[in-house]
Every structure is written in structure tokens, then in C-alpha cells.
């Protein structure tokens, strides 16, 4: 046991002393911060666009468009500039004359350039909006303008039909009060608190997938490095195979655990500061329904199952190219739970998802995502038992396979790999 | 006194291939054994059976009095061939880690690591990453990592390969030192001079079978002594001299010949020399050469190429 812990300690220290570990540690918080704050920063750094609104309809639509672009009590979406020097004979003339301003060849009379222009013109019995912009990708402003024009012409039509403005305003403000109810909700009415178990389950499934993917890569590289340098032979002459495999698996679990603990601590602090009530509910989700025990069960089972597989594969490989040939099919298998987990959270009792839960490689991910829907206890117990039985069988086969792979030389030998497994089964 | 190592009728088969065939030998405590043989002779498989890494198909191995090598792994030091170390670790940490797997505390492992590194001229590199060390230094560190826990049995697979002559000499001294403190040493090598200088016992293997087990002198005795003669005479005249069993010759510049005549086992060289002079052969130089271990190796292994 002490050898196992010493191997685990070396493995842990070897990783936390690398720059890659610190990059991994900081990457997610920095990435998430970037996703949240980058659009805001870009928005703040970008000047408010200057738009000219030319109304050729004669229906006085411009004031309503201006009100939509610059709503009271909200940041302006654009600065409405005075119309460039008139007269414009028609919309086509206006379009032609505005081109030098939009291209930046001319400045507006008060100084400054023109970023966009909305030419509102008659089109048959209706109205058309020609939206010109220096930025081809800018569509928000165009949608605001077209929405405002649409609302305005609908109001005009309704007024023309004899509906007075007060009634119109009342009609526009009509909307139902929608409430969601479910027998699974604590009070009957579905609130964020009731959705938290589902979200937590999905988050746990995703976390497990991340742990497995990052941990598997580390384990594979670690064993490959030791095999290539023949240190593995020294280890085998100093410790038993279960001690070596166990030490590596625990050491890498500690590395990924450290990273996860750091990430989750940051998330917990943010949730606790921004919404203490949600933080309390979240703690309740894990404690009250005993979900923490299920998550722990699936974490241990899932990690052990995949880690054992990757350690054993690593013992048969001497180069990353050899490892890649084996990792390819594994990665395809690993993407399946990622695809179905989100479905598991929204349709936990779908027949296909229930079938997938019975495949031991998918059990930890699918059950983590489905656990919030309180699947029957017999299903939890049976799928968990099957998962641990397969893991035990895998360990039983992996111990001699690891030794055979570690002592073999040359490139990966498929026949040796499977004959070792077959020999163990036969014995 | 009980043998440090006893191998009794050990056979290892992989399917139809026999890697080691009915091997038996014993090695006394404190002795140095040279494990010799061409590639594919079964040396590595035998070492792995001694270490308990692979189980024999037949026979048994008793290491330090135990029939299960796993029980005495803390008392064994092992250096594999084509070795390497954790490149990002420092020598002190690497040695201390491997020693900790042999039962030493990490603190004691570090203390002994510093001691060993200082004794072997690597004190200044104790805390530098191994990847920054020269190849020779790194190999030395790994050899030291097999010794930090003061093993009773040390197994070194090709320990001299990759070392420069000065470091080879230092390693020879180190091996003598290990034996001097009472530990048993087994090392495999392709360089016969090391075995000749160091070993109390040599074990020669070829094609999985033992072809010789005994002292260096006994091994050398299995090869013929050679009578070297130089002069101006007909080399074919040497063939029928008393005690001569084989003759090879080469021409010398500007004239003359050098003859290498193998002597029959136990045949005195004087008889052949006396007859040669009696026949009036123009011999200008003669020398009796005792066989080296290399000669014995070729004879005993049947000249199996390495």
C-alpha cells in the first residue's frame, strides 16, 4: 500500500510541477471569463453607430423608429444623425447620394461619419425598408428598424379600421401569465430550485467526461514514457502491478481532482456572491436527495473503468502514433455519452437513453444526467452493479495484460494484446 | 552458507519457442557473476525470472533464500538495459523515489542519494533536471538509483554500455565496492574484458542453454593456448609439429610470415618449439599466448555471432 501511495505521490508531483498543469488550472476560468466579458468589452470599445433615417412614406414613421432605436431608460442602440443635405428626389436618389457618406468619402455636416442609413419607402400597398450599413455583419440595428416600422404600419392599419389608440395599447399589453407545474416539483410549481437537480446531474456528467478525457491522456503518456525509457521494468521489479497501476490512477485522479476542486471553488464563490439563495438550493440538491452519493459512485466507477483501460493500452505503446491508433476508436465511444447526456437531462425516461444506461461504458455518464428524474432504485442498483462488475473484470484482465505489455518490446502488437487478454480469461 | 541465488532446472517457453532451456546454476553471497552470451541467448528472460517478472514454465528459482522473488524485491537492485530516467526529475528526487519503493523513507532516500552522488562526482548536479545532464552522467545516476537502498543482490543488465572509458573504470570500482560490502552482483555484458577483470564466476548461455558455468580461469582453459611464431619459413611445416591442432598464417612485409598455431589441450609448447628449431626453421620471434575470455566465449558458444 505504501508503494502505491508513493507512486501516486510521484505522479501527482510530476504533473503539478509542469507548466501544462497550471495552464489547465487557469484555462477554464480564463476561458469562461473571456466568454462572459469579451462581448461586453468589445461592445464598450466599439463606438455607437451613427444612423440616418429617411422616411419617404409620408406616414410619419420616423418618430416611432427613433423611439425604438433610442428607447427611454435604456442605452441608445445608435445615434440618430440629422439627414444629410436635401433635397432627395426619391429613395433611389437618396441611396445614390448617401454612398459617399457610407464609404467615408464625405463627412456629415456636423462632422463625423455615417455608419448606417435606413431608407423607408412605399412598396405597393405596403412599406419597404432599405437598410444600408458600412458593416455587412451588423444585423441587430436593421432588425430593430424593421421591427419598429412593422409595428408602426400595423398600428396605422388598426387605427384605420376604427380601433382607438387606448384599446390598441391595451391589446398590445395583453399576455398570459404562464406557470409550469410538475408532480416532481417540490411545491408543484416548477421553479429554478426544481430544475437544479437536472442541471447539477448534467454538470456532473460533463465533469466526469472531462476528468476521464484529461486523466486518460495523462495516464497514457505517463505509462508510455516509462515504457520507452524502461523505467517500467525497474518499477515492476520494485512493486506489484496493482500497486503501479493503482498508484498511477490515484495520482492522476488527484491531479484532475485538484483542477476540478479549483474550478468548482471559483464557481461556488461566484454563485454564493451573485445568488446566495441558488447556492443554498444547490447544496440542498446534493445533500437532501443523496445525489452526492450517486455522483461519487458514478465518478469512482466511471473513472476507474476508463483509467484502467488507458493505463493498459499505454503499456502496449511506445510511441504516440501507436497510441493514436488505439485512441481513435475510444474517442468515438467517448463522444456518444456527450451527445446523449443533454437528452438524458431533458428526456430522462426516453427508451433509447434507458437502454444506453445499461451499457457499462456509458452508465456513469447517463445515470449522472438522469439521476434527477429519480429513476427506479432497481435500475440504479442493477446498472451500477453491472458497471462495477465490468470494472472488476477489466481489472482482472488488465493486471497481467499491463505486465505483458510493459515487458514487450517493439511496436504495438495487436495479437499479443488480445492473446494476453484471452490467456487471462482462459486461466 | 546459503547461496544468494539458486536456479534449478529452469525452462521458459513462449508457445513453441523455448527462451531458456533447463538452466541450473548457483551463486554464492558476495560473489560477482558475469552473465555472458550472444543476443537471444536467454539472458534477459533469465534475469526476469530471477526478478519474478515472468514465471518459469518449469523449474524453480530461489533468490536470497526465498522461492518467491516478490518477497525479497526490497533486497534487490535492478538496472535494465536501454535505460532511462524521469527526465524532468532531479537526480536526488529520482534516486529517492526509487529507493522509497524499496522501503526507504523519502528523507533517508534523499540523504543517501546526496551521499552517493557526491561520492561519484555528481554532487554539483544533484538538483538539476536529469534532462540537462550528459548521457554518461544520466546513466551513472540510474546505476546509483539501484544502489541507494543497499541491496543484497544487484542485477545490472549491460551496465557498461554507453559509458566512456573513465566511467567504465569507475563502474568497475563501484561493482567491486558492492561485492566488498558483502552484496552479490550479477551483470551481463558483451565486453569480455570487464567480465575477465571483475568476475568470480561466469555463466555463458547460447540459444537458451547454459554452455559454461565456472570461474574465469576455467572458462579460459576451455579455449586452446596459442603459439605465435614469426620468421621466414613455410607455414605448412607447422601443421605436423607435436601438439599443434590448428594453424593460421599471414604474410609479413617485406618478407616472412606470422603463424598462429593452436595447441592441443595439455600439450607443452616446448615440444613444438624444440621440434621447429630442430628442423632448422628460421624463427625470429615466438610467444605463447594464454587464451582470453573472448576466445573461450567463441569456443564455448560455437562462434555464435552476437
Q: Any overview of this molecule?
A:
The complex is a heterodimer of chains A (427) and B (306). Chain A has 427 residues and is mainly alpha-helical. Chain A folds into two domains: 51-169, D-Maltodextrin-Binding Protein, domain 2; 190-426, no CATH class. Chain A is built from 16 helices and four strands. Chain A has helices spanning 2-16, 19-45, 62-69, 91-102, 140-160, 165-172, 192-228, 231-236, 241-274, 276-288, 291-315, 320-346, 351-357, 363-370, 377-407, 414-426; strands spanning 50-55, 79-80, 116-123, 126-133. Chain A has a four-stranded mixed sheet, sandwiched between helices. The longest helix of chain A has 37 residues, at 192-228. Chain A starts with a helix and ends with a helix. In chain B, helix 2 packs across helix 3 (106-119) and helix 2 packs parallel to helix 4. The relative contact order of chain B is 0.14. The interface between A and B is medium-sized, with 22 and 28 residues.
Overall pLDDT metric of chain A: 83
Query: Assembly type of the shown chains?
Result: heterodimer
Biggest interface and residues each: A-B, 22 and 28 residues
Alpha carbon gap, first and last residue of chain B: 36 Å
Strand content of chain B: 25-35%
Separation of the first and last Cα atoms of chain A = 26 Å
In helices, the fraction of residues of chain A equals: 55-70%
Largest sheet of chain A: 4 strands, mixed
Integer-rounded radius of gyration of chain A: 32 Å
Helix-strand pattern of chain B: EEEHEEHHHEHEHEEHEEEHEH
In total, the number of strands of chain B is 13
Query: Shape of chain A from CA axes?
Result: elongated
Compute the number of structural domains of chain A. Answer: 2
Number of separate helices of chain A: 16
Derived from helix and strand composition plus strand pairing, the structural class of chain B reads alpha/beta
With strands numbered from the N-terminus, the spatial order across the biggest sheet of chain B is: 5-6-7-3-8-9
Please count the beta strands of chain A (DSSP E, at least 2 residues each): 4
- Helical content of chain B (DSSP H or I, runs of 4+): 25-40%
Poorly predicted spans of chain A: none
Amino acid at each position: 500500500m505504501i508503494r502505491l501511495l508513493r507512486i501516486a505521490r510521484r505522479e501527482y508531483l510530476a504533473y503539478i510541477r509542469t507548466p501544462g498543469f497550471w495552464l489547465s488550472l487557469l484555462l477554464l476560468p480564463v476561458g469562461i471569463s473571456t466568454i462572459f466579458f469579451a462581448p461586453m468589452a468589445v461592445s464598450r470599445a466599439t463606438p455607437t453607430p451613427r444612423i440616418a433615417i429617411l422616411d419617404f412614406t409620408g406616414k410619419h414613421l420616423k418618430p416611432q423608429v427613433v423611439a425604438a432605436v433610442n428607447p427611454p431608460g435604456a442605452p441608445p442602440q445608435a445615434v440618430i444623425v440629422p439627414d444629410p443635405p436635401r433635397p432627395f428626389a426619391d429613395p433611389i436618389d437618396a441611396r445614390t447620394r448617401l454612398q459617399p457618406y457610407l464609404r467615408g468619402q464625405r463627412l456629415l455636416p456636423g462632422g463625423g461619419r455615417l455608419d448606417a442609413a435606413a431608407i423607408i419607402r412605399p412598396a405597393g400597398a405596403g412599406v419597404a425598408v432599405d437598410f444600408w450599413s458600412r458593416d455587412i455583419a451588423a444585423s441587430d440595428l436593421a432588425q430593430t428598424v424593421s421591427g419598429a416600422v412593422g409595428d408602426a404600419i400595423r398600428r396605422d392599419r388598426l387605427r384605420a379600421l376604427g380601433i382607438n389608440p387606448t384599446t390598441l395599447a391595451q391589446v398590445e399589453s395583453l399576455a398570459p401569465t404562464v406557470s409550469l407545474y410538475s408532480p416532481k416539483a417540490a411545491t408543484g410549481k416548477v421553479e429554478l430550485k426544481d430544475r437544479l437537480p437536472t442541471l447539477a446531474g448534467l454538470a456532473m456528467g460533463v465533469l466526469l467526461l472531462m476528468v476521464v478525457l484529461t486523466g486518460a491522456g495523462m495516464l497514457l503518456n505517463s505509462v508510455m514514457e516509462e515504457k520507452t525509457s524502461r523505467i517500467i521494468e525497474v518499477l515492476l521489479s520494485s512493486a506489484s502491478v496493482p500497486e503501479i497501476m493503482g498508484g498511477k490512477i490515484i495520482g492522476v485522479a488527484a491531479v484532475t481532482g485538484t483542477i476540478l476542486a479549483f474550478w468548482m471553488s471559483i464557481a461556488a464563490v461566484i454563485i454564493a456572491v451573485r445568488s446566495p439563495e441558488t447556492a443554498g438550493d444547490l447544496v440542498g440538491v446534493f445533500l437532501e436527495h443523496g445525489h452526492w452519493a450517486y455522483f461519487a459512485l458514478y465518478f469512482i466507477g466511471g473513472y476507474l473503468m476508463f483509467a484502467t483501460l488507458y493505463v493498459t493500452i499505454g503499456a502496449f505503446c511506445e510511441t504516440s502514433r501507436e497510441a493514436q491508433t488505439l485512441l481513435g476508436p475510444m474517442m468515438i465511444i467517448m463522444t456518444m455519452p456527450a451527445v446523449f447526456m443533454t437528452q438524458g437531462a431533458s428526456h430522462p425516461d426516453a427508451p433509447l437513453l434507458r437502454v444506453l444506461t445499461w451499457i457499462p461504458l456509458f452508465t456513469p455518464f447517463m445515470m449522472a444526467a438522469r439521476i434527477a428524474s429519480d429513476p427506479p432504485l432497481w435500475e440504479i442498483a442493477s446498472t451500477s452493479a453491472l458497471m462495477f462488475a465490468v470494472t472488476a473484470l477489466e481489472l482482472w484482465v488488465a493486471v497481467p495484460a499491463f505486465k505483458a505489455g510493459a515487458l514487450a518490446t517493439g511496436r504495438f502488437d495487436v495479437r499479443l494484446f488480445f492473446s494476453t487478454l484471452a490467456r487471462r480469461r482462459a486461466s | 552458507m546459503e547461496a544468494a541465488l539458486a536456479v534449478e532446472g529452469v525452462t521458459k517457453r513462449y508457445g513453441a519457442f523455448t527462451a531458456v532451456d533447463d538452466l541450473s546454476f548457483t551463486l554464492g553471497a558476495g560473489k560477482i557473476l558475469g552473465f555472458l552470451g550472444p543476443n537471444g541467448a536467454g539472458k534477459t528472460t533469465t534475469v526476469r525470472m530471477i526478478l519474478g517478472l515472468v514465471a518459469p514454465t518449469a523449474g524453480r528459482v530461489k533468490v536470497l533464500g526465498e522461492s518467491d522473488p516478490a518477497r525479497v524485491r526490497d533486497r534487490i537492485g535492478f538496472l535494465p538495459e536501454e535505460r532511462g530516467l524521469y527526465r524532468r526529475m532531479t537526480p536526488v528526487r529520482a534516486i529517492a523515489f526509487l529507493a522509497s519503493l524499496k522501503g526507504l523513507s523519502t528523507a533517508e532516500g534523499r540523504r543517501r542519494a546526496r551521499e552517493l552522488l557526491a561520492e561519484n562526482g555528481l554532487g554539483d548536479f544533484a538538483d538539476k533536471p536529469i534532462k540537462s545532464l550528459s548521457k554518461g552522467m544520466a546513466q551513472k545516476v540510474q546505476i546509483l538509483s539501484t544502489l541507494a537502498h543497499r541491496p543484497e543482490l544487484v542485477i545490472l543488465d549491460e551496465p557498461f554500455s554507453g559509458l566512456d572509458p573513465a566511467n567504465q573504470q569507475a563502474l568497475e570500482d563501484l561493482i567491486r565496492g558492492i561485492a566488498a560490502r558483502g552484496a552479490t552482483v550479477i551483470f551481463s555484458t558483451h565486453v569480455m574484458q570487464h567480465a575477465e577483470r571483475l568476475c568470480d564466476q561466469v555463466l555463458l548461455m547460447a540459444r537458451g542453454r547454459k554452455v559454461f558455468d565456472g570461474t574465469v580461469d576455467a572458462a579460459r582453459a576451455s579455449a586452446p593456448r596459442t603459439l605465435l611464431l614469426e620468421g621466414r619459413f613455410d607455414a605448412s611445416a607447422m601443421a605436423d609439429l607435436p601438439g599443434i591442432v590448428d594453424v593460421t598464417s599471414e604474410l609479413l612485409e617485406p618478407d616472412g610470415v606470422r603463424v598462429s598455431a593452436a595447441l592441443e589441450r595439455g600439450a607443452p609448447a616446448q615440444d613444438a618449439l624444440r621440434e621447429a628449431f630442430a628442423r632448422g626453421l628460421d624463427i625470429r620471434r615466438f610467444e605463447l599466448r594464454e587464451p582470453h575470455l573472448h576466445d573461450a566465449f567463441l569456443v564455448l558458444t560455437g562462434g555464435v555471432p552476437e
